[in-house]
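Z., the sequence and structure:
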Amino acid sequence: MTLLALLAAIALTIFMIEAQIPSPVPIPGVKLGLANIVTVFTVFVLGPKEGAAVLAVRIFLGAVFAGNFSTILYSGAGGVCAIGVTVALRKILTKKQLWVAGCLGAVAHSVGQMAMAVALTGTVSLAVYLPVMIVISILTGLFTGLCAQFLVNREKLWKIISK
């Protein structure tokens, strides 16, 4: 339980710091999603329930601390889709293929967020933006997936932390 709290705190801290950094590209809403490194790591090292717990705590407290409760809806929809994909891939990917979970999880996150945006606004034409979001998601997901892969493959590190 202490380890999960630590991982949730790390994910939340990364999320809050990243929220303060201006986007490197002039496209609204684009960010690396660095907190997802912690979620992917947790799913692959500790398990799906633990990963979902870390994700839920990060989304809820991130919205509380940022003062933006619509974040719960968008991040929640994206997070549920992303963790679903990550959990499904957990059984078939090797430790050298975790970057795939990063990419596909990021794409699923974008699809979930877009679905929520369309549902809330009733504006189906928002989906025009989805191809751009998917390309960006693949690139950012590759980065976060490779970071998670690096951490998962450092068994000595996380075995020391989990004691």
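The radius of gyration is 15 Å. The chain has one domain: 2-20+29-161.

Let me know what you think.
H.
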